[in-house]
Amino acid sequence: MAAKSKILVLGGTGYLGKFIVKASTEAGHPTFVLVRENTVSNPEKSKLIETFKTSGATLLYGDLSDHESLVKALKEVDVVISAVGGEQIDDQVKLIAAIKQAGNIKRFLPSEFGLDPDRHNAVEPVISYLEGKAKIRRAIEAEEIPYTYVCSNAFAGYWVSTLGQENITAPPRDKVVILGNGNVEGVFVTEEDVGTYTIKAVEDPRTLNKNLYLRPPANFLTFNQLVSLWENKIKSTLEKVYILEEQLLKLIQGSPFPSNFTLALGHSLWVKGDCSNFEIEPSFGVEGSKLYPEVNYTTVDDYLNAFV
Ligand SMILES: NC(=O)c1ccc[n+]([C@@H]2O[C@H](COP(=O)([O-])OP(=O)(O)OC[C@H]3O[C@@H](n4cnc5c(N)ncnc54)[C@H](OP(=O)(O)O)[C@@H]3O)[C@@H](O)[C@H]2O)c1
C-alpha cells in the first residue's frame, strides 16, 4: 500500500483548522501544523496545541509573512491545506509563491470552506470577500499548482446551532427572525464532517483540480423546515418574524460590520439559495457524499438533538 500523504495545515489553531488537523491525524496521515511562535504561549491556544502533539502531529514554526519558514515547512510534506481566516485570504499569495519555490507540493487546498466564490449571488460586503477567494483561485491556476477547492457550504456550528440568529450560542426558544420567505434551501455541514471530507479528498485523483462540494442529502433544509424541526424537538412554537429581501437589503446597507457581513451571508444562503442553486457539472466539480458514501455524516436532525 502506498504511504499516506504528508499534510501541512496552516491555520490549524483556528476555528475550522483544528477539525482539519484532527481528521488528518485520525486518518493516519503524517500531519504537520504550521504555528506562529507567539501563539504557543497563548494560554487558550497552547492547550489546543498540546492536543495536536498528543495526537501525533508535528509542530513547525512559521508565519505567512515569513517566506523561508513556509518553504522549509512545505519541503516536509506532499499536501498543504490552508484554513487561515478571513483576514488572511489575500496573504495566501505568499503561500502560493512558497509552494512554487518548494516545487514538491502535489495538492493545495486554499482557505475556502464556504460558498463557491465563482458561483454566487451575494451582495456586499460578501462580494468583496468572495472575490478575494476567487483571486487566490486564479493565482493558483496561473502557477499550475494542483488544487482542490472545498466548497463546504454553511457550517452547522454557525448556522444551525443559532438557527441563523446573531449573538446567541444555542437555538432560540421564543422568537426567530427568518431571512427571506423561509422557503429557500440551505445546505449545512458540521465542522467535523468538513474536516473528514477534506482529508478524504487530498490524494483522491477524482478531486484533482476540482471543486469538492459538500451537499449531504439529508442536510438540505429551508429556514422554515429548520425552525419546524427545532419546534418539534422542543414541543413549542416560536414567534416568527420574516425579513423579506427588499427589507433585508436595506438592513445590510444600514448595519455596521460585522452585522452587515453576517446578514449578507444570510441573504446569499437563505434568499438566493447559493449553496445549491446550480448543478455540479463534472467539468468543474464533484460532491463529497457521493464520492465518500462511507462517511456517516451528522444530519441536521441529529445535530439539533444536542441542544434540546
Ligand atoms: N461556511 C461557513 O459557515 C464558514 C464559517 C466560518 C469560517 N469559514 C471559512 O473557513 C475558513 C477558516 O476560517 P476560521 O474562521 O476557521 O479562521 P480563524 O478562526 O480566524 O483562524 C485563523 C487561523 O489562521 C492563523 N493565522 C493568522 N495569521 C496568520 C499568519 N500570518 N501566518 C500563519 N497563520 C496565521 C491563525 O493562527 P493564530 O492561532 O496564531 O492566530 C488561525 O490558526 C475561512 O476561509 C472562512 O471563510 C466558513
Automatic annotation (TrEMBL):
GO biological process: lignan biosynthetic process
Keywords recorded for this protein, A-Z: NADP, Oxidoreductase
Keyword field contains Oxidoreductase: yes
Molecular function in Gene Ontology: oxidoreductase activity
Residues covered by the NmrA-like domain: 4-304
UniProt xrefs under PANTHER family: PHENYLCOUMARAN BENZYLIC ETHER REDUCTASE-LIKE PROTEIN FI1, PINORESINOL REDUCTASE-RELATED
Official protein name in the record: NmrA-like domain-containing protein
UniProt source species: Vigna angularis var. angularis
